[in-house]
Amino acid sequence: MMPEFSRTVRIDTLGDAARTMEIAADAPERAALAERFDLAAIDRLFARLSMSRKGDRIAANGTLQAAVTQNCVVTGNPVPAEIEEPFALEFRPQPATGAEEEIELGEAEMDVIFYDGAMIDVGEAVAETLSLALEPYPRSPEAEAALDAAGIKDETQAAREEAEAKEKRSPFAVLRKS
């Protein structure tokens, strides 16, 4: 399956010296990514990055910028957002493993992308970085009123009320008032 935002780079064109590039998604690519990530819209997706290679490992460092519109998880209303997300990725060759063998990555290796062949796809890497930078539970300004009207307490509001109640029950509450 071809990614919606594919920008491939041949590995043999990279060396020790950093190669800088800029990539931007066009309107059809942004629309396809918005559908994939269940967004109302992606109005802009741009990344500036530098890449260098040491042996078979490629480092890509940069910043992605995006203008997206998500749907509020409470009301369904549009929630526009500007995203500016720095990233540091390492592309490595796909490890040779058995069919049943699982690949373990350490905490420091969570931004590793495996490749197979003579090319890497920095466009797909930027798209995946965008998906990780999205607000998981976007809320519109009307969300709190809608929750109140439905008789649902927000978790942070409920936690705050519980802390206040605990404070009032404290044996030291009388001393704090004086």
UniProtKB/TrEMBL annotation:
InterPro entries: YceD (IPR003772)
UniProt feature, compositional bias: Basic and acidic residues: 151-170
Disordered: annotated segments: 143-178
Highest taxon in the source lineage: Bacteria
Name of the featured protein: DUF177 domain-containing protein
Protein's organism: Allosphingosinicella humi
Lineage of producing organism: Bacteria, Pseudomonadati, Pseudomonadota, Alphaproteobacteria, Sphingomonadales
